[in-house]
Amino acid sequence: MQNKKVVVGMSGGVDSSVAAYLLKQEGYEVTGVTMEIWQQEENGGCCGLSAVEDARQVAWKLGIPHYVMNFRKEFKTHVIDYFIHEYVHGRTPNPCIACNRFVKWESLLNRSLEIGADFIATGHYAQIEKLPNGRYALKKSVTAAKDQTYALYNLTQRQLAHTLMPVGRYEKDQIRQIASDIGISVAHKPDSQEICFIPDHDYAGFIKENVEKPLPEGNFVDIHGNILGRHKGITHYTIGQRKGLNLSLGRPAFVVEIRPGSNEVVIGEGGDVFSDTLTCDHLNWMSVEGLKGAPMKVWAKIRYSHKGAPCVIEEIAPDVVEVRFEEPQRAITPGQAVVFYHEGYVVGGGTIR
Catalytic annotation on 196? Predict the structure, then answer.
């Protein structure tokens, strides 16, 4: 791939660092870019100030240019504002999916193409293939434990056509070994686990600080509407939650529904959090152009940590798909993504309604 130019999104971690190295070894003209997305100077996470310094040192070691690009505006609009909006409206968002689609890809890709790059690349554990039907699709990485296709299901055909993911062919241990062999400083740097803009995991506290008026307390109710107690505000809860409810009912209690209209959090028993059906919208099709009126058997994941389950998907309205699982699934959560797979490829996905 001599003379092909690629911009590698370098987060300062081992995966993106090795991605840059592998592409340079393949003959690409590599430029490293770290995305400035933090809203406060001291913010950490995958794109904080320490990440810039780590990425800069790796780029120097690899002998490639490195730049910092400012995407604060895009990150606030597409990730932070979206995150707050969803929680306030009783849904549980996935900010990493939004960040991937609109910031790490759309914004970075557009700017990279403007400066003459042919591709962008990341250190995600996924593979991209062009299928016989002419469409680009994500294929699961070789390591199931690190597969990141779920969080990337929303990428467009244009984005996939201009993206390289060299890390998807490797196990995590192999990536760390490569990093160690070439002597880069981040070879044993721990993986980032938290949402980058809420490192203390206090989602409700973050939302409280960033809304114009505080969200009111309300009632816990059972599935029949009987009042069971008072909750601290709907942003403190998500479907399937058991801990932190502070309810003494003499039995295990679980959040089974959040009703922003009436400001109620519905409490049920363990069996009440299982369902065999969901609907989703805001669809993005990947390996296929759409269902074209025909049901399709697939494997679906309803959250990043979900192992997935067999189901049938069918379009029931424009941009709305019904998912019918063979077995009931626990804690199907509005706002989260449902991602469809067939034979290891991402078919598409949508947002759970």
Answer: yes
